[in-house]
Amino acid sequence: MEQPYAIEMLNITKRFPGIIANDNITLQLKKGEIHALLGENGAGKSTLMSVLFGLYQPEEGIIKKDGREVSIKNPNDANELGIGMVHQHFKLVDVFTVLDNIIMGVEPTKGPFLQKDDARKKVVALSEKYGLMVDPDALVENITVGMQQRTEILKMLYRENEILIFDEPTAVLTPQEIDELMDIMRGLRAEGKSILFITHKLNEIKAVADRCSVLRKGKYIGTVDVASTSKEELSKMMVGRDVDFVVHKEPAKPGDVVLDVEGVTVASKAHKNNAVKDVSFQCRAGEIVCIAGIDGNGQSELVYGLTGIEPLAAGKIVLKGHDVTHASIRKRSTSGVSHIPEDRHKYGLVLDYSLEDNMVLQRYFEPEFVQAGFLKRKAIRAYAEKLIEQYDVRSGQGPITAARSMSGGNQQKAIVAREIDKNPELLIAVQPTRGLDVGAIEYIHSQIVAQRDAGKAVLLVSLELDEVMALSDRILVMYEGEIVGELDPKTTTVQELGLYMAGAKREGK
Amino acid sequence: MLLLIQYTLIFASVLMLVALGGCFSEHSGVINIGLEGIMVMGALGGALMMKFLPAGTSAPVMLLLVVLAAMALGLIYSLLLAVAAVNFKADQTLVGTAMNLLGTAAATVFVKAMNTAENASNVSSTIQYIDAKKAFLVNIGGFEFNWFMVLALAALVLAYVTLYKTRFGLRLCACGEHPQAADSVGINVYKMRYAGVLISGVLGGLGGVVYITAGVSEWKFENGVAGFGFLALAVMIFGQWKPTRIALAALVFGLFRALGNVYTGFDFLKALNLPSGVYNMLPYIISLVILAFTSKKSRAPKAEGVPYDKGQR
Amino acid sequence: MKQDRNAPTLLQRKGVQSLVASLLCIVIGLLIGFVVLLVINPTGAWVGIKTIVENFLYYPSGAARMKYLGSTLVKTAPLLMCSLSILFAYKVGLFNIGAAGQYVIGAGASLYFALGLGMPWYVCLLAAMAAGALLGGISGALKAYCNVNEVISCIMLNWISLYAVNMVLSTVKEVASPYTLTLSSTNPGAILPSLGLGKLFSNNQYVTIAIPLVVVMAILVWVVLEKTKFGYELKATGFNKYAARYCGMKEKRNIILTMVIAGGLAGMGAALFFLTGFEQWQCTQSSVPGMGFNGIAAAFLGGLNPIGAIFSSYFIQHITNGGAYLDKTMYSAQISDLISSLIIYLCGFVLFFKHFMDMRTAKKQERESVAAKAAEAAKAAEEVKTEEVSDDGKGGDQ
């Protein structure tokens, strides 16, 4: 009798010190289906997949392949069972070729020597069959993100995997690229592959998945048929309550120009071309201007240029009528620029410092906190306690908690508190809700809108289209370092926005 | 002039061997500052073998056994780094520094103990190997050809083939660039890092014995290997972690080091009347200047120096 | 989720952990040293290790003990300065292996100013600090502007400064020996004042203000790192240079300044030693003096804390001096170097030791909290069930 399930994970429990990441979770993947695994950040999806992939060993529960119990101790075991995975952060070696990355781990050899010719033929044949065009001899560091993802898919196909796991595969793609990926996934399903599709985006589940299992805070909530379940029902299962997808805000009342950017050009660190090319725009008091675009189109560098982290190659920045083009980072900060950086661990926090020391990171040099070169510890403590109270930053030991030991949401809240409490003229927020759960996202969105309503200029950089559409008063789309369009969120659609983001459409200059 | 070429080649051989060793270690993701100590240990192994082999041993046997002894001791000693860096995730710079100090101290203690045991009045830290050393040399006219030069060349070819043409090389480099990627396709990162460090031990040990036999006199173990392990690191960086470029860099550095030994043979250099200290400093000054110009765009393995922890991903 | 709310247990306190870990390093280091002695010559091993650990206590009379305690302290002073130099840089994320070279050039500058130029001690001291600071500054600038790894540049500079100092001091050496002229015969004004401290140590003429001065310096370094705005900036740069840049600190300037200060500390250490006249410089030295490297041992053994470094420096110097009393017909004095390098090696495992202690206590707390949570979870499970949607019944449509 043929088993209906390709893979079954039954009653899996995985604990880490102080946390139960997976609590009695069951997941059954049928042969030839696309099965979505839905959950918020921190719901335990990645842990569950790591268990399946042999990266973690569960404390309880069993895994069955074709109805037979199997033991998966490491990725090799998973590979032998035909399980492959496209990781959220690609597991590719930059300085290797596409081909080398594909064959790594299962290299064809003659004695100790690599034999790449047959492998190359196989890769070319596979990429033609599934419409995955990639040059096998290109270096990974030189190809686009979309091509890198196709390399990852080829890696699985080369190993003749039957069970394919996609971990948040659409985060780095344009809406058009996402459509292509969906087509590829359907093609794989038609060839009889079983697909597990991990995501927190409901539209994509509705578009491509057959069934959907939902996790919440490490617990199994249930499995549903996608066709007969509404998005609202899915989101309620994911979050545990009704979710308001709409951000409540009044129409903007733009005031004076706060930030005036003219012809800004920033050199790139990664390649010879400029990352930001001749960008000009204005940002007024009381409005949220959003820079939309696919990751890596110069948004980060634009922000570095605006805040002074990177020097400008050309152009002019005027803040409230004062030219700050050549001003230092500190000068810009004290003249009213606040910056919520995109990478809170790299830029936003000194993780080895305590929460209170992080709270004064932008102000420690002010007379309020320093006297004759010595820090005023009492004043710092009092200030930190005030912010913690006011912005509801939760931590184990209050002001003296090590920033490293705090949850991502509370780390981000701490940064938001610090930057907003500086009472800026201009708030630059880059991906302020990345990797946070719905509660924290709602809170940070409301804080950003509150800043706008208090008459501040807000420049928001986001990769999440939902966030762009919900928060912004004006949208500027960046593509390959240029602003290719200005859109009004009230009159534009996600599809149109996607065309601009992919460079398929642009406003004439 | 012939003398200059001879010294250049032999010093370049030392630097190349050791730098290639460092190159393997770093491609696997472990910074090996301890090459200096590994060289001392290799030198000790080789010197002991030379001392204790009977005088009549034929040259090829002598060569083989000395090389094996040096490699073996280098390998064993490099385990100290492998264990600390791979299993215990220790600070690799700190451990490497400790190994340098430990190498010299341990070798000195050992040699002195051995010497005093033989003859209570002998408190020197040298090992007698002048006669045995002749096994490595072939006189061609005025040129003293050293078999170690061939060995270094062989190591270069082998290193190139291993790194770029074999499965092992591909996997090794993956561990130094992106260990998580290597792990995800079932490569055992810990094993590969052990392999990288141990290979650096073998090559470093060999380099050590070549170094002490390169000079005219017998080597004092109190002096370690006079910073050659560090020069080799500079050679490796200057060589951008690539075997062929490392070979070129080794020749350049070898030339400047050789000048210190033979500058008196050149009339125009002698006429400059510079103190010998200047020539001693020269390789270090040159390497500092070159590093200043070449480090901006470094192609160092991305994950080097970062302990790999299976739990973090 | 974390157990932060609980007060840290004894073994979780950072200070206690550092102390336990350091003691562990010392014990293991001495144990291995003992084994080495046993291997070399079993009959004298016990006496040997006792000699090393006893150091000046080897002398029977109280006066002699005091005198040689003084000598140990005289050599502890430069070691402490080197370890301060290393830990200061380490706090800013830099591994100052160049303390050795900064110490060498400090020695060169102080002795040349004293013997060659006939300057008084305070000028010589300042010259040594300046020379060390300059050398450190070079490494810092290379790191900040050219991305040269400070470890490599420091090592190169160690050798360069050794040869340079040998050359410079050859101009003020004794005719018949490779040693520099003595301070007492050439320029007594360059000898550090004793202020009567020598009398406390059975008239040990080499005991000078250097000893109280280095303790003051250790406290000063602690205050700068822990209490000042400057220290806050430096440590932030060391922990996360990107965040430091983000909030407007000048991280390049901080890197250079750190190396300048670290170099100055090591250079000062050299002056505080050579200006006592305790030792002369040997102009034919062919290896970099170990003082700077032992400083690494002292810095890490002291838990990278300036106050801890006072004690660890003394300990390292204590066993180094003790090594000199070993019976030369059996053992060489380098046994002490062996032990201290073993201790540095073991310091590499300190993080692991600490992690181990954390894990032990965390596991204990974990067991307690799991029990507490089980009750909560049971309650929550009921709530979940009510909203569960499942299609388990329809499985198997193939």
UniProtKB/TrEMBL annotation, chain B:
MF-aspect GO terms: transmembrane transporter activity
Bilayer topology annotation: Multi-pass membrane protein
Organism in which the protein naturally occurs: Lawsonibacter faecis
Keyword terms, alphabetized: Cell membrane, Membrane, Transmembrane, Transmembrane helix
Cellular localisation: Cell membrane
InterPro entries the record matches: ABC_transp_permease
Transmembrane segments: 31-49, 61-86, 145-163, 194-214, 220-239, 246-266, 278-294
This protein's GO CC annotations: plasma membrane
UniProt protein name: ABC transporter permease
Main location: membrane
Keyword Acyltransferase among record annotations: no
TrEMBL record, chain C:
Membrane topology, record value: Multi-pass membrane protein
Keyword tags: Cell membrane, Membrane, Transmembrane, Transmembrane helix
Keyword Membrane: yes
CDD domains tied to this protein: TM_PBP1_transp_TpRbsC_like
Annotated compartments: Cell membrane
One protein family per Pfam: BPD_transp_2
Keyword Amino-acid biosynthesis on entry: no
Membrane-crossing segments per the record: 20-40, 68-87, 94-113, 119-139, 151-169, 206-225, 255-275, 295-316, 337-357
Cellular component GO terms held in the UniProt record: plasma membrane
GO molecular function per UniProt: transmembrane transporter activity
Stated name of the protein: ABC transporter permease
